[in-house]
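Project standup — Tuesday

K.O.: blocked on the structure for the chain from last sprint. Re-posting the sequence here as requested.
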Amino acid sequence: VSGGVDSAVLVAELCKQYSSVYPLFVRSGLIWEAAELNYLHRFLSALARSELRPLKVFEQPVGDVYGDHWGVTGAGVPGSESPDAAVYLPGRNLFLVTKAAVWCVLNDVSVLAVGSLGSNPFPDSTPEFDVALGQLVQRAVGGSVRIIRPYAFLRKTDVLRRGKNLPLHLTFSCIKPERGEHCGVCNKCAERRRGFERAGITDNT
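H.V.: unblocked you, prediction finished:
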């Protein structure tokens, strides 16, 4: 769970389906993570479901892999008019899901849910990728975990409407935070703004 709208709403909905839900956050050294994690703590505190277990934070630094990528340096962050492809972080979901999946196996958690939408265009955000990775983890550590994408056929507008009664003002969707808040001008802020407008919901951030 990143603290963004999609994964935050997913956590809330999973609490209605499972007796135990373990929110997992992977910290990779990217420029928005401090703000993201702050919002996530606040959202989970406000959610306060009995099924919700304490947040687990993993360390998975990628600065040595990404080098001078804008996600690490903050230089040249894609703006509001940039296409979705501009925010691609190579192998990002591979980094996130692999570590989380191994943790699931070691802790007897049989299902790992990912909040990727059907509109996500990247190769490591497909059902085929998740099936293959689940099989790979099973071969690597001798355990089994099923990776699911409950929102694979939804748009952001759909997710927002499903979560309209949740504290969505405690979610965070920005890749260039200003003093820990949404900058309002980056690619993700623009995507968030469009989503709320199309869903007919006021964004109180």
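K.O.: great, moving the ticket to review. Residues 36 and 200 are 24 Å apart (CA to CA). The chain has a mean pLDDT of 92.
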